[in-house]
Amino acid sequence: MADNSMVTLMAADHIEIQATLQAVKQCATLGTMLEVLDEQQTLGLPIPVLEVSGEALKKVIEWCEYHREDMVVETEQPGVAAQILTSLPQWDTEFFANIGDKDLLIKICNASNFLEIPLLLQYSIFVIAQALRGKSTEEMRAFLNIENDLTPEEEQKIREDNAWAMPQN
Amino acid sequence: MAQTLSSPSPIEALPMEVILEIMEVMGPADLSNFGLVNKRFYHIFTDKRAQILLKILRNCPELELLLHLYTANQNNFLPDRMLHPLTVTFSFRPDDAPEDKVFLTRNPVAWKNGKIVCPEKIKLNVFDLMALAQLVKVIDWWVEIYPRLRWRDHPEDRRCLKSDEESRLRKAIARWWLYSHYFHGNYWRNTHAPKKFELDARLHHVRILTTQEIHELDDLLGIMYETISKDLCSSPGKVNREMGSVVELIPWGKNGERHPAIVNTYMKLDPELLKYFLEHCYRYSKEYLITAITNSTHDLLFDRETLSMSIATVLEERSILDPDRPKTIPPMGIIAEDRANADECEVWNHDAWPTGFPPITKEQLAEQPSELPVRLVITLLKQLAGCHRNRSKSVATTLGLTFTTFLFLSQDPVRSIQNNLSTSINILPQVDISHAIEVHPSPHLPPPHRT
Q1: Whole-structure pTM value
Q2: Closest among B436, B394, B220 to B307, alpha carbons compared
Q3: In terms of domain of life, where is this protein from (chain A) (predicted)?
């Protein structure tokens, strides 16, 4: 199959998304799947990506299409994990700024982890950490829409046990 | 009471290793809050504490400086010990094999003045990492409030710092802290002004920096001076204006005359102490605050800060030893707007003296120019004093003075001369001093101010 041929991906909610083969190869999981599958028998069939919603998959593929010319970063490549990220390239900054919905951002992060796209995973982790910057615990819970399952007594004990790390106020 | 939410958050679906990675790119303060969000995050936080802290610390551009600060002790005042190279390691378990230890900083063996220098080897444990994280939290606080301080007069221009600006700021804060710890804190303090071409641990701290780094540090000091002056050493009071009396911030010190002396004394507070007082100053009366600040450091009122003097002295040493050095140094502040372009700044990024002493021969030392006549300096500086801050800054730049030196000299010239600071002015070659009359200042320094 030529790199510019189109592939259909099917998300968890049965939404079908078209992508170039080159973009799909940015996802190590899908790249391996395409290598393993018999090309003749699977040609034209949608590739199921059942762990990712259509909304998130669409954004992931948008990112992959833009970066399809980039060299695919190997997960185990030494130095990748140790690389310090201080800011994103301009296009990627705009990409994440346009997402708007924080739940979608987290879904993209999860999808990039499942699909093994190290650079997108690194970028989305960075963006989530930046979004949480300067927030109190309560604000983080509200931002992440997450339930507090600690009782006030437990929370107080944790604060006392970890006074070195906890905020003073 | 536990909250009840309609639908589960997508973050609940993130695997543990991704949560861990998010924690690793946070600052210590955010991490502390994040670890308390729920039980799952708290368990990840406690189980992987050392791993998370290591990653956070190694992401800090100021780590090496903070390691020097954390391991600072009295022995570093012994010859050749100040800022001695360090190799700092961490092991997850005491019985870890040597190859499993993690290097926080690693300095190779080097030669210094013909002698071999082996880095001091220090092993840290998880409690050391926690203490280091506390230092990082203080720097995080300054980074957070820095835009408010920098754009104090123009809040409409205020913005977040870019990553390169933040990196410069973090290092400058750590350098200021390290200097404050050794020379403004509870160790024995040298009350004499630093002198050119002398072995002086204070100058060592500045000499090992490039001119670019020195100017960034100087820029930070300018902001700190303004912060202490306006946020710590001013109190609201009634002022009579044409339209009636209004409440304004009035600088401490009789009619503002002693204000610079007060600010220069409080500039000795290190970043952590200053943070504390800035956070709490609005809760206390002026009298209580003065007592608290005075008691915070041993003999705080006995002297004033010397970092600006050390900066001025080292810059003058460099201009003397390199006659081809351009007379006008481009602006090299922390914020992009306060800097020349990268190419112009890069020229000034290779002139550090790693040994902590200038490369000077006896012949060069004998050829040093004579002292600057003090009357000329007093007249000039008195004329310049009272300029608007921005105007002052441009005047200082034009004259080749660093901003804090300019402030210090222009607001208190007599004491500056008495402290031998007149010799630290780069304007010497540019001014005709042939008709100036020598004035000998009183050998008695004014007593330390009583706030």
Answers
A1: 0.76
A2: B220
A3: Eukaryota
A142 is a domain residue:
no
- Whether A168 maps to a domain, the answer reads no
Q: Do B33 and A137 touch (CB under 8 A)?
A: yes
Q: What's the structural domain count of chain B? A: 2
Question: What is the secondary structure of A124-167 as a DSSP string?
Answer: HHHHHHHHHTT--HHHHHHHHT----S-HHHHHHHHHHTTTTS-
Terminal CA-CA length for chain B: 49
CA-wise closest residue to B223 among B293, B297, B168, B292: B168
The residues of chain A scoring below 70 in pLDDT are 1-4, 39-41, 43, 72-84, 162-169
CB B252 within 8 A of CB B294: no
Residues B107-160 have pLDDT tens digits of 777 766 667 778 888 999 888 998 999 999 999 999 999 999 999 999 999 999
Using CA atoms, how far residue B5 sits from A148, B9, B146, in Å, is 10, 9, 37
Tell me how many domains chain A contains.
1
Q: Which residues of A touch B25 (CB under 8 A)?
A: 85, 125-126, 129
- Residue-wise pLDDT for B14-56, tens only, equals 999 999 999 988 888 888 889 889 999 999 988 888 888 898 8
- Of B143, B173, B193, the last residue of a domain is B143
pLDDT confidence band for B381 (50 / 70 / 90)? low
- Looking at residue B339, the DSSP 8-state letter turns out to be B
Give the pLDDT mean for B298-323: 91
- Is residue A112 situated within a structural domain? yes
Give the CATH number of the domain where residue A23 resides.
3.30.710.10
- Is residue A96 included in any domain, yes or no? yes
What number of H helices and E strands is found in chain A? 9, 3
Instruction: Test A103 with B9 for CB contact under 8 angstroms.
Output: yes
B374 strand-pairing partners: none
Among A128, A135, A134, CA closest to A107: A128
Range of the domain at B376: 364-430
State how far the Cα of B3 lies from the Cα of A141, in Å rounded to an integer: 10
What domain range is A11 assigned to?
A: 6-133
Chain B residues touching residue A110 (CB < 8 angstroms): 10, 13-14, 18
